[in-house]
Amino acid sequence: MLRDLLCSAALAATVLLYFLPALLSGASLAPGDGSVSYLPNFYRADPSMWVEDIYGGYAAGLDPQFQLFYIPFWLTSTYPLFVLVAYVAAALGAFGCARSLGASRLGAFVAGLMVAFGGFMVAHLGHVTMIHAAAWIPWILWSVAATSRSQGPLPVLAGAVSTWLCIGGGHPQISLMGLFLAGFFALSLVPAQASALRMAYLGRITALFAVGLMLAGPNLAGLYAASLDSARGTWSELDFNSFSYTPDELALLLFPNIYGADSAGPFGAYAGPFNLTELAAYVGWLPWLLLPVLLVSRSLMSRTWFWLLAAFVSLLLMFGTLTPLGRLVFELPVFGQFRAQARYGIVLCISLAMASAIAITALERAEIGGRKVRNAFWIGAALLTGLAVWQSLRSWPELAVMGQAHLRLGLPLALGLATVATLWWAIQTRTRTALAMLPFLLLVDLGSFGWFYEWRSSPPLEQFALRPDAKEALSEIARSGGRVLPRFASTDSLTPLTANTNLMHRVPVVTGYGPLADPLYLNLARATTAGGIALPPPDAAILDVLGVGWVAGEPMRAESQLIGSGCGAEGSPKAVTIPVPASARWLRVSSHLSCSTHLTNGTPVARLSGGKPAGRAADIGVLKAGIDTAEWAHARPDVAAVVRHSRPAHATSFDAGGFPGYWFSAVIDLHGRATDEQRLLTLESVSPGSPLRVQSVEHSSDGVVWQPTIARPNHPRFDEYFSAFRNIQGLPALLRRNQMPARYWMPCVIEVVSLDSLRARLWTGGEQRIDVHKTLLVNPDTGIGEGVCRGKRTAELVEWTPGRIRLKIAPGEEHPLVLASAFHRGWQAKANDQPLPVFRAYGLNLGVIVPVGEQDVVFRFSPPELRLGFFAFAMGLLSAAFLLLIALLK
Fold first, then answer.
1. Is 822 helix (H, G, I), strand (E, B) or coil?
2. Beta-sheet pairing, 483-486 with 548-552
3. pLDDT tens for residues 787-801?
4. What is the secondary structure of 412-446 as a DSSP string?
5. C-beta of residue 408 within 8 angstroms of C-beta of residue 267
6. Which DSSP helix (H) or strand (E) runs through 552?
7. pLDDT for res 32
8. Nearest-angstrom CA–CA distance, 67 and 72
9. Which residues are 680's β-sheet partners?
10. DSSP category for residue 632
């Protein structure tokens, strides 16, 4: 027992040493999504079930990624420490699980290293919910193995708590993988039980999972409620297959940096299939070299067949629907709603770790040997090395040009050959020195990938600290009552006002970052799950409905500026105005098209002219489909099959969720066509139904050095509605709405309109705009009929806290009441303690019809599913206490 504790302490120390240089440098250990979402949520540390700060109001208590019901989330004081907990838990759980399978301490130590520092865990460091959910899978397996050998309640209790923590970690897909792996593992142990004890064993296993699921009741109930109205429900087979393997990605299992890694590291920037974080599943060369040894030993096969089968199945599932098994999983309920099938890499890693631990134990104890084992080893080593050499020769010419071949190919090949030599030495001699070299080589091998990945360049914690003037500005925004409309997606810019990053500063924004957003909200607000949102006309009703009081970021930038009509471009300007200096002789426009598959090569899609669109300005240039710009999803399989124009050569790609999206660059010669007086150019969409999204506009006087310029949407009277806010270092440019929106209002006219009409009217400005304070628009699904109220009623706000809103309504006839807070089915309303039906006002907001007379109206966020979840949790606690009591009495 003492030696096991010492080995566990050594594993924990290894985790600390692995990350120590980054910790000493003040790194946040929050690359990518970690900086955008998980770190801000950690420091927000608010147990409220409802938050007003994203998506115009969001059910945080139902979203597992907020980790509100996860104990380590509340027990750790800093975010880096919270991250480290996952790696320590994964290493110790794998060590304990391997020991429970009969592995030696050395074999179990290898398993702990493989799980904690394998490609999956290290690459997903920025996805803190994923690594925390994965960290507890070995603990569940450990508990199952212990339950098969002991009839006491402690292994059952340990397994229940591990199941609870795995689900509470916050990533349903990883938790589901782990639970099914543990479930099948439990079934595989049934034949080993004495026939008289099998039913008792199955009863203990059932209790283990049942109590664990009850303890996780709030998580499961919340996830169920959130999934009822989430964007995930609209995902297709293409989404399911995003971030899945193809035969080309198999090279990553032997050469983890073959396509590059982090731009700041020695392997150069990643330039392979999208994206390495999701595809990484490197476990080193050691487990693959041990496979032949296992396959030729009958005694080892009897102990490892389950893990070898699990590894094989998980590898097949990583290919998505390319395999019949993946096709079957896609058709299954729940499983088919998850994307990124390469995430089965965690099952592959755990399975190979357990099999490797047993194989190393057999070597250490001299349980295997002889010519058959030696021959099998050499055949396997020759095949693996041959595959590696073939891949090296195949990739060498391209990488040699880049000057990266010696590192991307040579380093893993050298480490692999060193592992071959050391393992052969161990097979031949079984000396402690040879065996002790295996975990050291494995750590170096895994470190050749993980040590240089993006977490090393994660932003420092001090970057998230604000200057006093920035804090005061954010407090002023929060006090104003208006929400912020950010002009940048969460993946584009990291600022205190970026969606989800804003959570740690308690400043409300109208968009958010996450797949469980309400798809109707995204549709009507023209927002994305990546935090992006379109800029409406400055007098459009959507600004009042969303409660927008501020615009963050340069609102006139060309970035993500949509011009044209159709394909979701309602309310977008038809043109942008581009100021250029007199010295400019070239203009470079980066753009792409939407809904343009029907356009043929050479079809004009945008016109560049001097002066304003309404004037009679001379044409300067024309952007043409297939030549200057093209469909953004040109490479998506379903689009590629039907698109009628070519993909221009000058393009840059971005991750579009499992396939590359494109921006296309076109250079327009202004010399001789734009006079020095023509310093205000106009780019106007001329392809109805296929709007143009402009990413950037640059000008140059020599065609070599390019300077960015600002492309201003031709929205009339913008300055009449917004004023520039003072410039604050550390904050993006801010515009303040001249008249802050109301947080609640009581319109008198009710109109029932279709969803398309509702969206169009909300985004229309000018003379045709609607006044939301007078007119309420509802969809037929609400069951609210058209009408005009008699008289005017007023409301007085009494309380507005997260999850609870109270207003006093003056006497009068029946009258609609609308709150500038997002609708959710979990909201309940009462007027003078009598229930009121809640409906979607404008398709987005909370609305009720207030009864006749003076009323005290109270809104409370209380989803029935969550109440059921807390009841299950209480039952789980009682069951766990009962198991503990039995253990103490024994």
1. strand
2. parallel
3. 888 788 899 999 999
4. HHHHHHHHHHHHHHHHHH--HHHHHHHHHHHHHHH
5. yes
6. strand 548-552
7. 87
8. 9
9. 579
10. T
Mean pLDDT calculated for residue range 587-598? 91
The pLDDT value recorded for residue 559 is 47
Integer Cα distance of 503 and 52 in angstroms: 10
Q: Which amino acid type is present at position 230?
A: S
Tens digits of residue pLDDT in 682-722: 888 999 889 998 888 888 888 788 888 766 666 556 678 88
Choice among 352-361, 434-443, 568-577, 782-791 with the minimum mean pLDDT: 568-577
Q: Which two tokens stand for residue 21?
A: 């240089």
pLDDT band at 298 (very low <50, low <70, confident <90, very high): confident
**Backbone phi, psi, residue 632, to 5°:** -65, -35
Provide long-range contacts, Cβ within 8 A and 24+ apart, for 302-309. Answer: 303/101, 303/102, 303/358, 304/354, 304/355, 304/358, 304/359, 306/184, 306/185, 306/188, 307/351, 307/352, 307/354, 307/355, 307/358, 308/351, 308/355
Closest-CA residue to 368 (of 298, 286, 438): 298
Distance CA 466, CA 464 (A): 6
Q: Which residues contact 296 (CB under 8 A, 6 or more apart)?
A: 372, 373, 376
pLDDT band at 13 (very low <50, low <70, confident <90, very high): very high
- How far is Cα 765 from Cα 106, in angstroms, rounded to an integer? 70
Residue with tokens 């309400």: 518
- Please give, one letter per residue, the 3-state secondary structure of 223-271: HHHHHHCCHHHHCCHHHHHCCCCCHHHHHHHCCCCCCCECCCCCCCECC
Beta bridge partners of 731: none
Is the confidence at residue 641, as pLDDT, over 80?
A: yes
The closest alpha carbon to 531, from 29, 53, 44, 45, belongs to 53
Taking the model in full, what pTM does it have? Answer: 0.86
From the list 269, 156, 152, 172, the residue with the least C-alpha distance to 223 is: 172
Cβ–Cβ < 8 Å for 423, 97: no
* Rounded mean pLDDT, 772-801: 90
> Which residue is associated with the tokens 């790194």?
27
Measure the N-to-C terminal CA separation of the chain; round to a whole number of Å: 21
With a CB cutoff of 8 Å and minimum separation 6, the contacts of 383 are none
For 391, other C-beta atoms within 10 Å of its C-beta total 18
Instruction: Report the distance separating Cα 203 and Cα 196, nearest Å.
Output: 13
Q: What is the pLDDT of residues 549-573, one digit of tens each?
A: 999 875 444 346 778 877 765 556 7
SS3 state at 876: helix
Tell me the CA distances in angstroms from 4 to 8, 117, 149, 650, one per residue in order.
6, 20, 19, 59
Q: Are the beta carbons of 789 and 816 closer than 8 angstroms? A: yes
Q: What is the pLDDT of residue 560?
A: 60
pLDDT band at 611 (very low <50, low <70, confident <90, very high): low
User: Which residues have a Cβ under 8 Å from the Cβ of 150 and sit 6 or more positions away?
Assistant: none
C-beta separation of 834 from 858 below 8 A: no
The angle that helices 172-188 and 345-364 make with each other, rounded to 10 degrees, is: 40
Give residue 828's identity as a one-letter amino acid code.
Q
Looking up tokens 């969606």, which residue turns up? 499
Which residue matches tokens 């310093």? 679
In order, the DSSP letters of 691-746 are: -EEEEEEEEESSSSS-EEE--EE--TTHHHHEEEPPP-TTS--EEEESSPPPSEE-
Judged by DSSP in three states, 868 sits in helix
Nearest to 452 by CA among 257, 611, 163: 257
Of 842, 235, 120, 130, which is closest to residue 516 (Cα–Cα)?
235
Percent of the chain with pLDDT over 70: 93
Q: How far apart are CA 326 and CA 318, in angstroms?
A: 8
